[in-house]
Request: fold
Amino acid sequence: MSESPILLTPGPLTTAPGTRQAMLRDWGSRDPAFIALTAELRQRLLAVAGGEESHVAVPLQGSGTFIVEAAIATLVGPGDKLLVLVNGAYGERMVAIAQRMSRAVEAIRWPEERAVEPERVAEALRADRSITHVALVHCETTTGILNPVPEIAAVVAGEGRAFLLDAMSSFGALELDLRTTPATAVLASSNKCLEGVPGLGFALIQPAALERAAGNSPSLSFDLHAQWKGFEKDGQWRFTPPVQVVAALVEALRGLEAEGGPQARRRRYQENFDTLLAGMRRLGFELFLDEAVQAPIIATFRMPPDGRLVFRDFYDALADRGFLIYPGKLTQAESFRIGCIGALDRRDFERLLEAIESTLATSQAASSGPGFGSDLLVRPLSLESRA
Ligand SMILES: *Cc1c(COP(=O)(O)O)cnc(C)c1O
Reply:
């Protein structure tokens, strides 16, 4: 078996050996040992965000989208109305989920490079009293932009509405304290900043909101009230749990605590990001976002506008060197993304930059005439701003 590649993606991502090791045993899902592991999982998830006193943790089998869908289906009732604050693809996905669930839904949209503005949210809530729930993405993984969660949570709470936060690509690294930031539900998954393996989403939810949501979900599987009641009854999962994924996530959560918690993890990711950005700029690449709104989670770089760098070739050349980067997801500009999360540190990013530099040098040698590589290595490309 060849060595694992370094994943520079928003998840699944590079995991620690101990996390992968934790999957090398079998578990009986109704055995006391696994029930204890599930209890530890739920407890540790709450502790990451300081939600032990105010929220309950409800894990659900599946990818991150599954928990978003289950939360909207369960918490937004047939007579409610959801307002989604959109500045990227994951916000749009919440709108699509609500529509598919036949829930009343509206959106306020910002350009992908602009953070959501609390004042506009306040105006919208004052103008439409029928809005009962507001949904926001913490770090929009489309670009890597950071939305101002504490300010928006305060606006929503001040207007007496429920707040649903998609913290998928931030939970475990970016600051989120449920003791000071009011949120009805926080949604995330196993395979992003928690550095577990994929297969599990979870919601931290205020129990009173869950109680009120009994019977709301039109889906049997995507019913977080029923899922919660199952755990409360006997500590067991309603349906077959992904036992190895749970074991790996508990190990990864112990690792997060050992690292020093979310603050320490954020510092490591920030160092990864800073190393990456400095190196990429030196090589002539331009960051898509303004640094003021950039989270240290995933960086979007513009494709050089001359068209001489082709994503697929660039990807393949880096993959040959052991690094997997990520395609862009912008609607408005050619781009690619490099994730800064996972069990990686600045040395991995230094090696990545060497691989990128050698890739560009090789493309220079291979090209006839004045190639992309020579331009790139001799002087920084002057990248025009987006058309
Ligand atoms: C990853 C992610 C999701 C869920 O994606 P899946 O592919 O279903 O795991 C949802 N929201 C955000 C912000 C994400 O980054």
In short: Residues 368-387 have pLDDT under 50 and may be disordered.
